[in-house]
TrEMBL record:
Signal peptide: none annotated. Gene3D superfamilies: Nucleoside phosphorylase domain. InterPro entries: Nucleoside_phosphorylase_d, Nucleoside_phosphorylase_sf. Residues 10-266 form the Nucleoside phosphorylase domain. One of its GO terms (biological process) is L-methionine salvage from S-adenosylmethionine. GO terms for molecular function: adenosylhomocysteine nucleosidase activity; methylthioadenosine nucleosidase activity. CDD domains: futalosine_nucleosidase_MqnB. GO terms for cellular component: cytosol. This is Nucleoside phosphorylase domain-containing protein. Coiled coil: none annotated.
Amino acid sequence: MIGSSPRLDLLIVGAVPPEVDPLKGWLSSAERIETEWTPCWLGGFGRLKVGLASLGIGKVNAAAGSAFLIGRFRPTMVWIVGSAGAYALGPLEIGDVLVSSTVFLGDEGVWEKEGLRSMEAVGIPVAEERGRAVFERVVLEGDELFERLVRVTPPGLYVADSPSEHMPRALPYPETTGMVEGSVKPRPKPFRVLVGPSVTVSLSSGDEWVAKERFSRYDAWAEEMEGSAVIQVCRRFGVSVAQCRGISNRAGVRDKSLWRMHEALAHCHAVVGSWLCAFHENP
């Protein structure tokens, strides 16, 4: 029954289970709830009531799934987590983490031989925010949630370290327990957290030419397939939202033997771990 569903402080969503399943071990009294859309794990993180769910890949799954879960669990905020492909001409390297400041609505609008034009060419906005029509991008920078999370993990060099057995955090390099003189613990590989634009696409870049064209068109640093859809739903519901993506590959490179998905998600989850700890300590 919808009326009996607990209200969440935080809903964390990804596209596929590997993007959210590792976080289940962070929650106390975690319980699997079957819903009409997708299984959802509910549990506690200190004083926070947290839900985890994989919505499915792509904009339709992302929009419908997030709308359903927001309607049912009424979270105060939603965090989008997962992986992304970085454009070679941008500043991101594989293993870095991107906190999205702006998300472009990729592949939406008018396609002409000269290139892609935004929904402004159609003349119909996808939404209205802060008294302005939204045609091509949703802006997270300036939101209270965005600014708070960026204060927790500002742009810089980090390592993913685990002060506890199951809870990774992003710690400023080299301020980590893994770098104590004489310690046998291996040194964690450092990675960067950057804040900047991403683009949500309907079609992944299939080669380097397409990736270069997309970078030129949107001036975004990375591409993913769900972000703008979830953000638009959250804005309609009045729910705060943020996006954190680990970089697993170069956009346009389809040879998955070159992808580093595990590393990308581990670093993304470490950043999310730091965010959770900050909200637990100061809700």
